[in-house]
Amino acid sequence: MGPDGPNRPRRRRKGYGAWGSAGQGPWSRPSHGSVRFRSSSLTERLLIALVLAVVVGITVGLVLPRLSPQVSRMTGGYTATGDAAQTLGSLPVVDRPRVHRHYNRDSFGFKQTDDDGDGCNIREDVLARDLKNVRYTTQGGCKVASGTLQDPYTGRTIPFTRGVRTSSAVQIDHVVALENAWRSGAADWDQARRYRLGNDPYNLLAVDGPSNQEKGSASADYWLPPRAEYHCDYVARQIGVKAKYGLSVTGREKDAMLAVLHSCPGQPVPSG
């Protein structure tokens, strides 16, 4: 080999050694200061590695149960206690319901009944129940003209004013969506029973309009309210409605509900 081959002696840089200080080459013994520097650097690296390990462990513990149902079961993510969890356990699980008729929202007769005989439909009754500072269109009437909603789904304070362009800011949500109820057993009911569910105040909440639109007919495994603090109450009410009317849940829906209830031990089913 020539002088540029692999056996060519390594040149020592003038003035700087392997440690970056004058007079220290790769074969020279580091000064005490350099030893302290290496020790400090090693400690810092160990601390960084420890912090990263903790962060990764926490991330894995939080994310994996959501990504893998099997991991969640192994880690207890689908265990829950309390009335809501026990009631959920009593619901039938039907993953592939046999529905022989197409869903028809009108079959539930929403706003077609007046069970309390006040001359107003259930939308007006729910607005009057859930809004504050309620004003009516006529004195002694029951049609709501305005009010303020403390929205459970978003936590926002929403002003309501009746009008073609303003009424949709506050909408009435079926907590158990009617299409979900249809697939969960209501398709086989008679009209009277479907009308009761469609106009039951227990299954109705005044909520933020855009959130209601976003939810659509989704069950708990596909949609939960934006406000995480309301998830437990929301799921517990869905369970209460399904128990009241003998509706089923799917396996995924049940797992999603249990995952929510896992974070709120002892969660009750709402009364009403």
UniProtKB/TrEMBL annotation:
InterPro entries: GmrSD_C. Pfam families: GmrSD_C. The chain crosses the membrane at residues 46-64. Keywords: Membrane, Transmembrane, Transmembrane helix. Residues 1-35 are annotated as: Disordered. The keyword Lipid metabolism does not apply. Coiled coil: none annotated. This is Deoxyribonuclease. It comes from Bifidobacterium xylocopae.
